[in-house]
Write a structure and sequence with these properties.
3 domains; 434 Repressor (Amino-terminal Domain); Rossmann fold; six-stranded parallel β-sheet; homodimer; disordered N terminus
């Protein structure tokens, strides 16, 4: 008795069809364990992707479970079916403008379509993120939209959702090894275009300030920065690449460090607007003129960039576009009772103001 | 059989003791309906405070339900008891710095004490807020912290929590007619002190810019503004009191309107930092010097106030203090299985920077 079908099309378009008809529906973890002569705790671990189970055992267990038609968490799924108008959004931190705006706008979009939204903050902690995902089953959610922590590399804790047939979409930050639906920004291009804009305005010594995060999106921005310099035959200096911090004060410190170099930059790209504003504050107190002496570009299009003077030029990641795509991808899966693995890439756009 | 006891001490200290022992526990809405000869739908509406039920009928039904020992939502409560480490936070909007920071900090405080937090945004809509509160029962939450919408006057939709013995605490914005636990800011004093600070620096014509919200907290600020002027024998001019808008652009427009008056102000108090920054932007483009020609003060201590120049003087509502008090009030009730009606008032503080 097969209750699950996989139709693999391509890496980025992989369809999981939720079973429509259930026969018997009484296969438990113990049945699977008995069939294989393996302890039921091991079976449970393998099916939940928790704890240490040898890979070949895990494959064997999953194959047998599929063959027997094992369906986990029936009670939880029944609850979910009773309340299918709730969506969950999971973000690492609600304080940055990007996330609070995404969450708020997503809620409005969902509400117009008759869904309510519950929001969770993982605090950049993978353990917390896992607890949240585990709890979502009990909350009977119809779908999940998530941006993972900076340290989430694997997505095994999202498998529980997949097992329950609950669709999910990653936005902005996805685990590095995932086939799940995702809506990402072309971060490489964002940084590449920003550096190119500074070069076009005559700058030749361009520095890069990142946060301390090692997540893919920051690695992509760094790669875009380097590629733009290479393509314009401009030297890449390790002194001009600085990492660490998240706030205005970090930008101030980093700018000071850069401007004290013997060979100091004439352009600075920062991966967050708040850091870029710190850079501007330091430069102004040190009597540099912006953009004449030095150009500055940030990322995010945070309204804070309009408060400073000159107003900050920034790389915008269109939040309405990310919200729209995330919601559409999720809704499509909910309505079709299908889990799709699709990827949307949002083009970033430079918003020119006064710092280039 | 009485299962609920009320001990009324004073308006601000009203204790509701959750029943510890349950006898029988089989009284249903239909039993209450039969006893009174009223249709069970009416009884359900009256006990849930939903739909139209005549006030005297509602009182009669509630009295009878109490007398019979009716206890609603037993299934939901059982669930809740199984998962008592989840708290809910309900806010009108996650975008303003004040709310996103409160929610994020509350989550961290709760996490340290072993609680996880789910977050809801009512979008300033009382109907949405009601739906959220209704849903919290099913999510087995141990307690709720809420800041209500600008239009929430009554708190009847929170009664469901009370009926379930789920404690709740209002922070920043509470319904006007409530006896529930609350952590509020002394908004009257915040505005009073801000105006006094401007007067102390030599200003004599002080204007006030509010949002379009008619909530108590904005009325209190307006009252504080007026009282400070009265106490210093300074004229209150209706031309200098402007309402409407929430953002920087609104501040810019209002500042323009004020500065075009024949008798224009030399000090402006805005109820949000973002509005105050708009005021500063307009004044600078019109070549006014700040604070020499005109002083500006905002509310919230939004980091955006440090991005602008001069840096904004602001009335701070201590978020760590609000988070700490809200959490403590909630935890006390959860641990004691008691619903307390207690009120904490947080003293605001002026953060002096460059605009006074």
């Amino acid at each position: 008795m097969m209750t699950v079908n996989y139709l693999e099309c391509s890496r980025e378009h992989f369809i999981f069809i939720r079973p429509k008809t259930v026969m018997g529906d009484t296969i438990t973890i113990k049945d699977v364990a008995r069939e294989l002569g393996i302890h039921h705790v091991t079976v449970s671990r393998a099916l939940r992707n928790t704890g240490a189970v040898k890979e070949e055992t895990r494959v064997l267990i999953k194959k047998k479970a599929l063959e027997l038609g094992y369906k986990p968490n029936r009670l939880a799924r029944d609850f979910r079916n009773k309340r299918s108008n709730v969506l969950a959004v999971v973000v690492p931190d609600l304080r940055p403008y990007f996330f609070s705006k995404f969450v708020s706008d997503f809620m409005e979009t969902a509400k117009e379509a008759g869904y309510s939204v519950m929001i969770f903050q993982s605090g950049e902690k993978p353990g917390m993120e896992k607890d949240i995902i585990d709890s979502l089953i009990g909350y009977r959610v119809a779908g999940v939209v998530a941006s993972v922590t900076k340290d989430t590399v694997q997505e095994s804790h999202f498998d529980l959702l997949k097992e329950e047939g609950i669709p999910y979409v990653f936005f902005d930050r996805a685990p590095e090894e995932t086939q799940a639906s995702q809506v990402l920004v072309d971060n490489f291009k964002g940084a590449y275009d920003a550096v190119t804009a500074m070069i076009a305005s005559g700058k030749k010594r361009i520095a890069y300030i990142s946060t301390h995060y090692r997540h893919q999106i920051f690695r992509d921005r760094l790669a875009g920065y380097k590629q733009a310099l290479r393509d314009h035959k401009i030297e890449i200096s390790p002194d001009w690449i600085i990492e660490g911090g998240f706030f205005m004060k970090d930008g101030m410190e980093h700018a000071k460090q850069l401007m004290q170099l013997e060979h100091c930059p004439d352009g600075i790209l920062a991966v967050r607007d708040e850091i870029a504003i710190g850079v501007i504050k330091y430069l102004k107190t040190s009597a540099y003129s912006i953009p004449e002496d030095i150009a500055v570009i940030g990322f995010d299009n945070d309204p804070m960039g309009i408060a400073c003077e000159p107003e900050l030029t920034t790389v915008q990641q269109s939040i309405p576009c990310m919200v729209g795509n995330s919601f559409e991808l999720l809704l499509q899966q909910i309505k079709q009772s299908t889990i799709l693995f699709d990827k949307k890439i949002i083009e970033p756009k430079i918003i020119y103001r006064g710092t280039v």
